[in-house]
Amino acid sequence: MELHDIRNEYTKRVLSQNDCYENPILQFEQWQKEAIHAQVNEPTAMNIATVDEQGRPNSRMVLLKEVNEQGFVFFTNYLSRKGSCIERNPYVALTFFWPELERQVRIEGKTVKIPAEQSDKYFATRPYTSRIGAWASEQSAVISNYKSLLAKAALVAAKHPLNVPRPDYWGGYLVVPETVEFWQGRPSRLHDRIRYRKESDNWIRERLSP
Ligand SMILES: Cc1cc2nc3c(=O)[nH]c(=O)nc-3n(C[C@H](O)[C@H](O)[C@H](O)COP(=O)(O)O)c2cc1C
Questions:
Q1: Ligand 1 mean position, distance from CA 148 (Å)
Q2: Nearest Cα to 29, choosing from 93, 112, 146, 107?
Q3: Which of 58, 177, 182, 194 has its CA 20 to 30 A from that of 18?
Q4: What's the pLDDT at 16?
Q5: Exposed e or buried b for every residue in 132-157, given b needs 16+ CB within 10 A?
Q6: CA 179 to chain centre
Q7: Assign residue 200 a region: left if phi > 0, alpha if psi is -120 to 50, beta otherwise?
Q8: Among residues 61, 55, 67, 65, which one has the least CA distance to residue 94?
Q9: Distance in angstroms (rounded) separating the CA atoms of residues 148 and 154
Q10: Model pTM?
Q11: What's the average model confidence in pLDDT over 139-152?
Q12: Beta-carbon neighbour count of residue 185 at 10 Å?
């Protein structure tokens, strides 16, 4: 089969402005719940795009760990490539794709570090080996081989056999949304797109052409 022969018709659902909450966070929570209920593989996985010092975009997947009235929280290494991009330019874009529901959500906004105590709290809930991994991995750096990574992890584990403290270079970011768009696939590529944009303290809801 040729790539150009691969195509799906989207027929499952519709999205009308009237069915959407006034607040995009509530709307997101509703869709997130439905994605989990539909047993979407990795329902919390999202792409995050950042911009480097030359104005060039780069992106990768991360996991959403919390949604609250302020925005969307994920965790990473602050010294990673994404971390250094965010330090220079806090504006990011997030994208979720839930194929089983024929849905996409796009979020654009400004990123802030969450308080250290909140990162401590989440770090403590991670499995032991993940906490060791946070110390062993100098995320995004070039390393000579995998063996050296395992050796570093073993050293860290020997040092912290029980309690692993959070490295201060590892923690959470909160993405405070300025626009949130909900996309529902429809037949004939005439999809539904409802975008919320923040104006002063209000959310304006608009339908976009597909
Ligand atoms: C499904 C999935 C979830 C991921 N979740 C995270 C995450 O929550 N935090 C993280 O730092 N990296 C996560 N990664 C790894 C990142 O995609 C990426 O490789 C890593 O963060 C380094 O990115 P950077 O060099 O651009 O900073 C995940 C990868 C996948 C495929």
A1: 20
A2: 107
A3: 177
A4: 96
A5: bbbbbbebeeeeeeeeeeeebbeebb
A6: 15
A7: left
A8: 61
A9: 10
A10: 0.97
A11: 97
A12: 22
pLDDT of residue 98: 98
pLDDT of residue 101: 98
DSSP 3-62: GGG------S----GGGS-SSHHHHHHHHHHHHHHTT-SSTTEEEEEEE-TTS-EEEEEE
Q: What is the pLDDT of residues 103-113, one digit of tens each?
A: 999 999 999 99
Pocket test for ligand 1, best of 41, 59, 76 (most atoms within 8 A of CB): 76
Reading phi first (left if > 0) and then psi (alpha if -120 to 50, else beta), residue 92 is in: beta
DSSP strand pairing (170-184 vs 192-199): antiparallel
Grouping H, G, I as helix, E, B as strand and the rest as coil, residue 152 is helix
For the question of residue 13 being annotated catalytic, the response is no
Tokens 């270079």 belong to residue:
169
* Percent of the chain whose pLDDT exceeds 90: 100
Centre of ligand 1 to C-alpha 140, Å, is 10
